[in-house]
UniProtKB/TrEMBL annotation:
PROSITE patterns: PFKB_KINASES_2 (PS00584). It comes from Bacillus licheniformis (strain ATCC 14580 / DSM 13 / JCM 2505 / CCUG 7422 / NBRC 12200 / NCIMB 9375 / NCTC 10341 / NRRL NRS-1264 / Gibson 46). SUPFAM superfamilies: Ribokinase-like. Requires a divalent cation, most likely magnesium in vivo, as an electrophilic catalyst to aid phosphoryl group transfer. It is the chelate of the metal and the nucleotide that is the actual substrate. This is Ribokinase. The lineage of its organism: Bacteria, Bacillati, Bacillota, Bacilli, Bacillales. It catalyses: D-ribose + ATP = D-ribose 5-phosphate + ADP + H(+). Its cofactor is Mg(2+).
Length: 293
């Protein structure tokens, strides 16, 4: 069983389903409201655990009832929580999601996730040093992402950086990461002034641009390649990117080739959108393998 550390956010998703997205100044009547576990870090940790890895989550929750529910959810999914601490007097992170017109829009309030500092991460060094791969995203402080990239590089542990939500990265952080997985919008923020082709060619087998229904695009050192996604009728795409990143990390940590790892990740992501909620449709390992065979 491969060992994965996920360093990132743990939040509660407050999800409104509505026939229409309100314009500025407009009020619309929604259809339903649900509260479900989310946060990009937590989603990736849960997805990786369901896909068969031993997963340590490194993060913070609030000392509120959401924090307790987030911890319970990790435990129900077999994610190790030795390095998930409640922060006294702090609210848990929340994501305010509108599902309308077949897509989502999200506002994240970081709350306790802002306490995932470089000093906090240092407490988890014993787990990080044992990891086959580390996953990180950008719903935690920027200096933590920079610190972890340097740490993983110095320890010789591959870091998969999912640069979401989008913000520019320091050149050293890009150099230190083993894999970077932006979507098209995030890639345009990261590689300003460079065309997609130039960016992919500059970072062969490091930069993987996810293009939703089209699949994933990367450069293998010789040519640009697209590994196609699996067509499905999506119910809720929230968390599909997180499932992709978790699947990619799990497959890579098991020694699969890049192409095989991307197929595995795409298949897992395609299954994840068949149910409501970021984590609702995240598949178990045997479901992905059944579909792939
Ligand atoms: O990637 C999906 C996640 O982004 C949601 O679960 C929400 O928490 C937001 O952070």
């Amino acid at each position: 069983m491969s060992k994965i550390c996920v360093i990132g956010s743990s939040s509660m998703d407050l999800v409104v389903t509505s026939p229409k997205r309100p314009a500025a100044g407009e009020t619309v009547l929604g259809e339903s409201f649900k509260t479900v576990p989310g946060g990009k870090g937590a989603n990736q940790a849960v997805a990786a655990a369901r896909l068969g890895a031993e997963v340590h989550m490194i993060g913070c929750v609030g000392d509120d009832h959401y924090g307790k529910a987030i911890l319970d959810n990790f435990q129900a999914n077999g994610v190790l929580t030795d390095y998930v601490e409640p922060v006294t007097g702090q609210e848990s992170g929340t994501a305010h999601i509108v599902l309308a017109d077949g897509d989502n829009s999200i506002i994240v309030v970081k709350g306790a996730n802002d306490h995932v500092t470089p000093e906090y991460v240092q407490k988890a060094l014993p787990a990080i040093k044992q990891a086959d791969i580390v996953l990180i995203q950008q719903e935690i402080p920027e200096e933590t992402v920079d610190y972890v990239s340097g740490l993983c590089s110095s320890l010789g542990i591959p870091l998969l950086l999912n640069p979401a939500p989008a913000r520019p990265l320091r050149p050293e952080t890009v150099e230190h990461a083993a894999y970077i997985t932006p979507n098209e919008h995030e890639a345009s923020v990261l590689f300003q002034g460079m065309s997609r082709e130039e960016a992919l060619k500059r970072y062969p087998e490091k930069l993987f641009i996810t293009e939703g229904k089209n699949g994933v695009r990367y450069h293998n050192g010789l040519e640009e390649r697209v590994v196609p996604s699996f067509p499905v009728n999506a119910i809720d795409t929230t968390g599909a990117g997180d499932t992709f990143n978790a699947g990619f990390a799990v497959a890579l940590s098991e020694g699969q080739s890049i192409e095989s790892a991307l197929r595995f990740a795409n298949r897992a992501a395609s299954l994840s959108v068949l149910k409501f909620g970021a984590q609702g449709g995240m598949p178990k390992r045997d479901e992905v393998e059944r579909e792939l065979s």
